[in-house]
Amino acid sequence: MKRILQTLFSVMRMAVGLKPRPVIRYVRQGGAGNADGTSWANAAEDLQATIKACPKGSEVWVATGEYWPKKQGHAFVMKEGVRIYGGFPMPDSDKPDPAMDSRDWRVNPTILKGNGRRVVYNKCNRLTAAAVLDGFVIEGGRTNDKGGGIYNQKVSPTFVNLIVRDNHAWTGGGIFQSGGILCLSEVTVTGNLSHWDGAGIYSNDCKLVLANVTISNNVAEVGNGGGMCNRRTMDSSILKGVIVKGNSSASGGGGIFNSCSSPVLINVAIDNNETSGDGGGMYNSDSSPVLDNVTINSNRTIGDGGGIFNEGNSSPMLNQVTITSNLSGQYHHLE
Fold first, then answer.
1. pLDDT in tens, 292-313
2. Is there a domain that residue 16 lies in?
3. pLDDT (tens digit, 9 = 90+) per residue, 273-283?
4. Average pLDDT of 187-212?
5. Bridge-partner residues for 63, per DSSP?
6. Nearest 5°: CA angle at 330, between 327 and 335?
7. DSSP state of 165
8. Is 7 in a helix, a strand, or coil?
9. Which of 106, 236, 251, 289 is 20 to 30 A from 308 (CA-CA)?
10. Superkingdom of this entry's organism (predicted)?
11. Is residue 18 part of a domain?
12. Cα–chain-centroid distance for residue 73?
């Protein structure tokens, strides 16, 4: 009888268009109870194992604390249809069962750390926008390859409310995206290092969708694009409400380096970036980005183009763009 009633209830929910409640699994540092993840009282300790075991359409709630992959050299891998939320307070006697409305990812930092290599690694695992990582700090990734903080290849997950900081890689110190869609909202990418291109973000052969993103204080030691390096990104790429500041590169594009990439920039500030090559703020190679309500201010280069440097078949379209107080040529010329 109980099973019949459950079935009837499910049919009724479907008939009126109600979605079933998602399965929720709980994770806290050190675990709790029997650690099966079915409640805060029995929270799991192993975040990756919990993600892997979750069915499509479920959620993982993670309490404040620091989390590493269990195995040396491994990384956290997202799963299609699973939404992973950080920022929950640690359950205690006053609040033994924190709910979604008590989540505050800035007050309750939930930190994912590298264990000898990258922090997050998604390679061709068929992720769409339904795979969500929301409310985490991504830090301490180290690799001599690509993507110290987050590595994405041919995937399109959703990243919301993140700080990606202090990650190192050969290319794409903070985030590396090849193929698919890089979707970032309310994300800060700061203090990352790359030997070659894209200290903050490196993208190629993909679409960019960035909203309210700050890319700051990233360093490309030898390569291009201290803040961002974009190669062959789709023309439908859009950066809206983005701040690119305080980044540096050795070769070109202290703030942004575009090669065969023509993204649309709306309400963007490119300030106080520098390079030892050309294009203190932005370097365009065979690229014609569309700039709408953009400020390019106080960028520096010892080469040419303190604000913007264009080469090849590059014709940026500018609308309500302010370019001021940029320096070039051993910092002697305003541009």
1. 999 999 999 999 999 999 999 9
2. no
3. 999 999 999 99
4. 98
5. 88
6. 20
7. E
8. helix
9. 236
10. Bacteria
11. no
12. 21
SS (H, E, C) 208-228: EEEEEEEEECCEECCCECCCE
CA distances from 322 to 140, 155, 293, 294, 295 (A): 36, 35, 8, 6, 5
Buried b (16+ CB within 10 A) or exposed e, 63-72: bbbebbbeee
Element (H, E) at 104: none
The single-letter code of the amino acid at 241 is G
Domain contains 9: no
Q: For residue 147, give the amino acid letter.
A: G
Query: What is the model's pLDDT at position 133?
Result: 98
What's the CATH code of the domain at 319? 2.160.20
Closest by alpha carbon to 262, among 301, 227, 230? Answer: 230
Residue 13 forms part of a structural domain: no
3-class state of residue 48 by DSSP: helix
Return the ∠ at Cα 289 (arms to 232 and 300), rounded to 5°.
Answer: 100
Q: How confident is residue 235, by pLDDT bands cut at 50, 70 and 90? A: very high
Entry field: residues in the chain: 335
Domain range for 44 is 24-334
Residue 115 phi/psi, 5° resolution?
-120, 65
Q: Which amino acid is at 327?
A: L
Element (H, E) at 4: helix 2-15
Q: Quick one: pLDDT at residue 19?
A: 66
Structure tokens at 27: 């994770």
Among 163, 161, 165, residue whose Cα is nearest residue 139: 165
The C-alpha atoms of residue 316 and residue 313 are separated, in whole angstroms, by: 10
What would the two tokens of residue 330 be? 């051993």
Q: What's the pLDDT tens digit per position in 86-142?
A: 999 999 988 999 999 999 999 999 999 999 999 999 999 999 999 999 999 999 999
Predicted local confidence at residue 18, as pLDDT: 54
- Please tell me the total count of domains within the chain: 1
Would you state the structure tokens that stand for residue 296, as one six-digit string?
A: 């390019």
| 165 within 8 A of 141, measured Cβ to Cβ | no
Evaluated on CA atoms 79, 87, 267, 298, the torsion sign reads negative
For 315, the 3-state DSSP assignment is coil
